[in-house]
Amino acid sequence: GSDIYALHSSTLLPFSLPSPLDTIMLWLFSAASGIFAILLIVRWYLKGKNWDGRTSARGKTVIVTGSNSGIGRALAEELQMRGADRVILACRSAQRAEDARKEMIQRGAEPDRVSIELVDLMSFGSVINFCDRIKEEYGTIDVLVCNAGVLHAEGVTENGHEKLLQANYLGHFLMVESLRSRVNLKRVVFVSSLMHKQCKTEDLTVEVGCSALSTAQYERAKLAEVSYAKHLATQGMESYSCNPGVVHTNILAGTWMVIFETYLSPLLGFIMKNPLEGAQTALMLSLAPADKLIPGAYYSDCRIDATHPLLKDAAKIKRLHEQSVALVKDFL
Predict the structure, then answer these.
(1) Which of 218, 228, 240, 299 is catalytic?
(2) For the chain, N or C: smaller number of CB within 10 Å?
(3) 2 against 212, higher pLDDT
(4) Cβ neighbourhood burial of 196 (10 Å; 0-12, 13-18, 19+)
(5) What is the rounded end-to-end Cα distance, in angstroms, of the chain?
(6) What phi and psi values does residue 326 have, to the nearest 5 degrees?
(7) CA distances (Å), 195 to each of 69, 235, 237, in order?
(8) Catalytic residue at 218?
(9) Is the pLDDT of residue 1 over 50?
(10) pLDDT of amino acid 241
């Protein structure tokens, strides 16, 4: 038969070879254990570093764009929990903003310290109206976090610009320039992306194709944000940009990559950063003392990081700023 013998304490004991099913189950268990270990390593790597600062936000008035969900909402809630006098949720959708505010209040936020101001970055008129309302209500904005953005948007806005460029960059550019002339704007933080390093050109006048399979427009818009932070620093403003990392949010909506979100959401939720983890670097840049930060610098995982080689050229940064001014000049 299949019995063989093993020597054990001078006694021959019979035992059977594992059945094919037992062998398969053993291999499956080993494979599953290996995959789980790999996922844990990936999770550890992608999680990055949390900011260990305990700096209070007390006394500060902060605007966070795109704060009805994702990173922006997590950041707004954390700033409120740290005692900010006023956190302004700058959002396009009134209903989503109100839902976010209600949930923040249910989680302990003080109602009179969280307010909503509607703004649509794809409309320069909306941005100007927003800035006018801020001027009427506030003399000082301690921190403006330019977080709102989309990964994919085809077509042009009512102002004639690529939707993606305006939603991610030009709308914020106009907001910053307009607020600077209306209130005491102390600090600006741009939530950019690691993808800015893949950008092929910083020239805003070059037409970049847009399709569900291309991120070229997004890359250029995020490069422009990093460049603008550098430019503002040369003008004496506290300005910084950051890469939030690989975060599990709804930004994939409208792209071909949403298929991963649809079918792999539990897995992605496990290995990717959650919104609060993704907000850590922006939180640091919002609250850390200026003497602890590098003016105009780009940060990842709460550490300074290298930017695109194009941005080592001051002339390119200057030209990009001049192009930006030209694109919004009718509203300045």
Answers:
(1) 218
(2) N
(3) 212
(4) buried
(5) 91
(6) -65, -35
(7) 21, 26, 25
(8) yes
(9) no
(10) 98
> What CATH code would you report for 55-331?
3.40.50.720
CB 75 within 8 A of CB 51: no
Pick from 137, 138, 117: nearest CA to 127: 117
- Average per-residue pLDDT in the chain? 86
Instruction: Name the segment(s) of the chain with CATH classification 3.40.50.720.
Output: 55-331
Amino acid at residue number 196: H
Amino acid at 43: R
Count Cα neighbours of 78 within 13 Å in the Cβ-side half-sphere: 24
By the 8 A CB rule, do 84 and 108 touch?
Answer: no
Type of residue numbered 317: I
- The region of weakest confidence among 91-100, 148-157, 236-245, 263-272 is 263-272
